[in-house]
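User: Hello! I'm new to structural biology and keep hearing that structure can be predicted from sequence alone. Could you demonstrate with Tyrosine recombinase XerC? Please show me the input and the output so I can see what each looks like.

Assistant: Of course. The first part below is the input, the amino acid sequence of Tyrosine recombinase XerC. The second part is the output, the predicted structure written as tokens.
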Amino acid sequence: MASDHLADFFNYLSIEKGLASNTISAYRLDIEKFFHYLSTNQLSLENVTPEQLSSYVAWLRGMENREFKIGESSIARNIISIRSYFTYLAKEHKFNNPSSNFKPPKIGKRLPKALTIDQVMSMLNIAGTDLISSRDKALVELLYATGARVSELINLNTLDISTADTQAGTTTTVKLKGKGGKERVVPIGSFAVAAVNDYLVRSRPTLLKVSTQKALFLNQRGGRLSRQSAWNLVAKAAERAGLSDQVTPHSMRHSFATHLLDGGADIRVVQELLGHSSVTTTQIYTLITIDHLRESYANAHPRSKF
């Protein structure tokens, strides 16, 4: 049966395609939803038709499907996951592929929400002096200093931060491992360096339970800080700063990119710093900058009516 090849498929995604574990987990959940649909409707995976795939999308959108009801962007990803699985089965195991013309819905580009510089500063400047606050400040500083994804930051080890003397002076860098295992090196400024050093000197030795622990950011049990904990501490930092909108680690990444472009950074440099494989992905941030310019122009120019 085609379902017997699932383990091989996920190994293929990890080893051959080099997808991140979070992405593979999303694929797994998508395919589980599809199998649930097939089971509920007594359908066989081996005999799925294009019409049944269309019915599946309608099922996802349907109000009667309250347990699994999801938005359009999730539906689009779901379709991509299923299409990838059928493509794999057709290529590796000679199965019929009913998904050749199975297209995900077009999702309009949503501009990422960026904080203002003052809002970021308020998050960074309002912090306690206890050991956990020292860790949290270091993490938020690094998020904004590097534009890292939260998964990249929590997977950092102490040896991923290094300092070197160059002709321009002393430079501290962070080695991040992005999607597909691709590594990039991002420089960080003195504020982030100071926050990280304070955490390494004051907090991490106290949190450390096992001397062989390599993780940079530790929880109170001495293990690697989790993704959810990182989200929670960013949200709490925003709450302490009096920010009403939801703030996530990704908000810091958006702010990093937007503020760089607003400050005149070259889009190719921002692409490299963010770890985007294509500059097209980075260009969405230029739309924010254009909107900002348009707003400033409209407010300042006496004949700015559009």
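User: So the tokens describe the shape?

Assistant: Right, they're a compact way of writing down the 3D structure. Reading them back into a model, for example: The chain has two domains: 2-93, 117-297.
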